[in-house]
């Protein structure tokens, strides 16, 4: 995962005019000196101003550098054109060809490596929005992120991203948000977002309901009837009840080395096990669907009191789920078999 946040230097936003697929890309310009980077910035800033007035089909044109200046050598552009003809017409505009292309080809050692162009493609559902306030923002906080999932994983996170886009639309200080595909990698998504300020991003967007946090915990003395996890749960109920409300669900990973894949029976369909809390079935379904999607036939196992999830379910009343594999069981069976054989 790459995480970049930027100061915009030149910013131009127009409403999207054409229905056709836009040309949308993010380019990294690795210049060899700070003076050349600054000259590139001046030239592209000038082009941006000209394009904003004269090229209505240029729907986004931003030149950005990392907050704090980064390495002082790299600049990035975010460019979106209504369609291919608009893009080609922009490339052949006299100002672009003289001020940018002639200059860059005639400047020796301008780049330390070729500029890197990353195209963004629109996803089938409406996963983008931009608000009129974005065009007026004086110093928006821009975040570009790439997320690479396991094979087929993008399919599983689409619902999450749809919710995230819907929620971000409601946030007054979230001025632009989009989730895009990557034509070079089916398992990667890109997000582009602009907030009215860094503070807004930190205080509001990151704390919104869909931007949930994961808390990782390693428990001690599970074999001694869950000493560590039990203590944790009682500490919260006894001393920090407000903390309990912050927990949505608990996932347990115990004995995950090798053998059959077992998924917690959250909907009680095995007819065995402890009673479950609401939504444990959602966890079960997510996992079963995930494994089915990658060609693994996972089995269900009843939710019992045999590991740390038990206390989260019974003390904190949280939905729980677990993944486990039958390694230990297989080992024990193999030992029993060997012992049986040697007795015989
Ligand atoms: C970039 O330039 C700024 C201002 O001149 C300087 O403070 C900073 O140390 C430079 N950063 C690097 C990585 O050279
Ligand atoms: C800036 O743009 C104007 C047109 O808007 C052009 O006349 C001028 O030459 C450009 N300056 C540079 C340094 O490219
Ligand atoms: C990226 O977009 C440009 C402009 O449409 C196109 O020429 C280029 O082939 C695209 N590259 C990829 C990898 O899709
Ligand atoms: C957005 O706000 C409206 C009005 O307050 C509300 O009805 C809707 O549920 C909200 N949508 C999301 C995704 O938060
Ligand atoms: C009890 O919970 C609080 C709040 O999460 C935590 O700060 C504290 O360290 C916990 N106590 C112990 C002994 O773990």
UniProtKB/TrEMBL annotation:
Keywords: Hydrolase, Metal-binding, Protease, Signal, Zinc. This is Peptide hydrolase. Coiled coil: none annotated. Its EC number is 3.4.-.-. One of its GO terms (biological process) is proteolysis. It comes from the Eukaryota. It is an enzyme of class 3 (hydrolase). Residues 1-18 form the signal peptide. Residues 206-314 form the Peptidase M28 domain. It comes from Schizothecium vesticola. InterPro entries: Dimeric_a/b-barrel (IPR011008), Peptidase_M28 (IPR007484). GO terms for molecular function: metal ion binding; peptidase activity. Transmembrane segments: none annotated. Belongs to the peptidase M28 family. Pfam families: Peptidase_M28.
